[in-house]
Amino acid sequence: MESINNNFVFKSLFDYPKYRGDYNRNVPFLPMSRKEMDELGWDSCDVILVTGDAYVDHPSFAMALLGRFLEHYGYRVGIISQPDWRSRDDFMKLGRPNLFYGVSSGNMDSMVNRYTADRKLRHDDAYTPGNVFGKRPDRATTVYTQRCRESYHDVPIVIGGIEASLRRVAHYDYWSETVKRSIIFDAKADLILFGMGERSILDVAHRLASGEKISEIRNLRGSGFIVREPFAGWKGIDARNPDRNLPIKPLPNPYSCDCETDAVLVKQDPKEKNISVKDFSQTRLVPKKEYILMPSFDDVKNSKTAYAQAAHIFHGEVNPYCARALLQYHGDRAVWLNPPPIPLSTEEMDLVYSLPFRKLPHPAYKEPIPAYDMIKFSISTMRGCFGGCAFCSIVAHEGKIIQSRSPENIIREVEHMRDHVPGFTGVISDLGGPSANMYQLNCRDPKAQAACRRQSCLYPDVCRNMDVDQSKAINLYRQVRQIPGIKKVVISSGIRLDLAILDVKYIREIVNYHVGGYLKIAPEHTEPGPLNCMMKPGMETYNRFVELFQMYTREAGKEQYIIPYFISAHPGTTNLDMIHLAQWLKKHNFRVDQVQNFYPTPMAVSTTMYYTGFNPIKKIDPSLPPIFNVTGEIKRRVQKAILRYHDPENWDLVRTVLKELKLENLIGNRAECLVPPAERKSFRSVRSTYRQDLASGKFDRQKSQNTRTSKGKNDYNNPGVNNSRNKRKK
């Protein structure tokens, strides 16, 4: 049954026929070589998926999930995993695909995968056999797409995945510190599929298989492509100016009597300056065939105000039930983005996760794959998150509407894992998703959900329309625990604290049965300034959760602990905020070993704050003072050092900050002090150390004398200094 929503046609997954009606065999693994294709009797592949990850036949790996999904509908799917991008040879090893190339950097953004938050090269890659670094290039989606184009220039190329999804409009690139174009221009792809792609990639495959050209696929939800001008008959809203949003008047078509068939851009009428138009971000149902004109690439590149306005528009159009199409010009061409894909129903989610995954890496790999080892005994129960944390990209990619599997479907997967996955001992390492306690939660008012443009359903307060009863998650946990052979179910996914304290039964359940000694939670900070920018609840929420956790732990007679996670250098965070956080850590006897410096990833709300100083969730007002930001490697390193104030290597940096803030009272050996005073080495200690270094051959004496630059008054080791000891020697 086809459904029509804002002039975009979409089908239920159950309404698509099989491409090859006589093709019902599920292959052991999707082929990665010509030899495997020959063994299967394939002369060609219908679709070839290119990925920067190793091929693990597990639903947690996106290309395996999409490959098995297309296989279910009768398509022959091959996978090119971690190809050598320096030539086109690897991209041609499976031959020419009959329909299209599907290209992704992998489960992670390739730049995040390759670089730390301090822009240092990593030394490992968890998605590569043997944890080996260097198996994928920078900006892998763009590089892979260009190699596919070189291989077979006339084969359609569709890009997707997290890297493409979050670069679908002009975006700030942290690694080059520039604003880059939409990825579809640099990659030279035919189509970009953003968000969760099952429905859209299946529709592309069927339409291409039926003879439709890739250039004709223009009404597909969750897709973007390049155009010269808006489509005829579409109504536009010029939202380039933060102060006004004006309807775009179409020019009349001289070849038609219907003056409203063409919609092209015209300059704003100067007479309309005082027209008051309702802000487009306010809740209202969307008329058919309406698009938003965003600030152009040139505008956002040259103006931070324009960039913030573009981000404001982007984040206001992520609800698939009310989102409008977006248009952003890049020179004389533009990227057109259709509204996001319609979320999968529970029955559709069950279909996707019931596919015949082997839950194993491809047998071609001889070394362990760390990312697989982390998730091989875990179960995904849902996708999406309505928390809307500013530094997170889940809302922009997966959406805030929760898509959950049925308990029966999850139980069948647990039983399959128990019976078929090697090494399973009865312990499930995780049962959850982006937020474990959002399972089967959604808006209780369908009309409100269809018109909602809030980034978060929990911040600044929990929406009155949101279902907060977490009994469905509790019942699921209880059913899984009763499966024969299951010894322990650990909840390792994130738990949204402000949601958990609204249903204390959930906290009691996880305390009694699902904590493996330590529960990791993420308050992220203690101070209101950073927390407001993060769109996270205050510490009163954390304190209430800890109170309940400890109370139920004592009732259960267990010894369990909470490990809090924090972020440094997030927009809105001053050094004084970090000092207060460090004091809180010391007061509660926490020593943080792993610290996450804020990582400005493309199109996250926090990244816009970091680059522009504006909060894109709010109205863009240049007259307001900008959000405070810590930029530059040294300043960012300082905030990270404050979090690890207990490490002697950080004491000098922390002392410097404390002196700058006139907080010398926190330097000392008292209980309330963060760092001890600086040690003063005596002359005898310095001279003794120097002689020991000479004796051990640590450095050459003559070289040290010739290169020393110190002019200290008491530098007895420098014969060029005219001090009292040298005079006595003479």
Structure notes:
The protein has 730 residues and is α/β, with parallel strands linked by helices. It folds into three domains: 1-226, no CATH class; 360-437 and 480-666, pyruvate-formate lyase- activating enzyme (Alpha-Beta Horseshoe), CATH 3.80.30.20; 683-729, no CATH class. It is 32% helix and 13% strand. It contains 26 helices and 26 strands. An eleven-stranded mixed β-sheet has the order 5-3-6-7-10-11-16-15-14-12-13, sandwiched between helices. The protein is globular.
**Main pleated-sheet profile:** 11 strands, mixed
CATH architecture title of the largest domain: Alpha-Beta Horseshoe
What is the β-strand count? 26
**How are the strands ordered across the major sheet?**
5-3-6-7-10-11-16-15-14-12-13
Tell me which oligomeric state these chains represent.
single chain
Looking at the structure, what is the overall shape? Answer: globular
Helix content: 25-40%
The CATH homologous superfamily name of the largest domain equals: tm_1862 like domain
Total domain units: 3
Q: What would the CATH topology of the largest domain be?
A: pyruvate-formate lyase- activating enzyme
Termini separation comes to 103 Å
Cα-based radius of gyration, to the nearest Å: 29 Å
The residue ranges in which pLDDT falls below 50 over 5 or more consecutive positions are 1-6, 251-287, 699-730
Structural class of the helices, strands and pairings?
A: alpha/beta
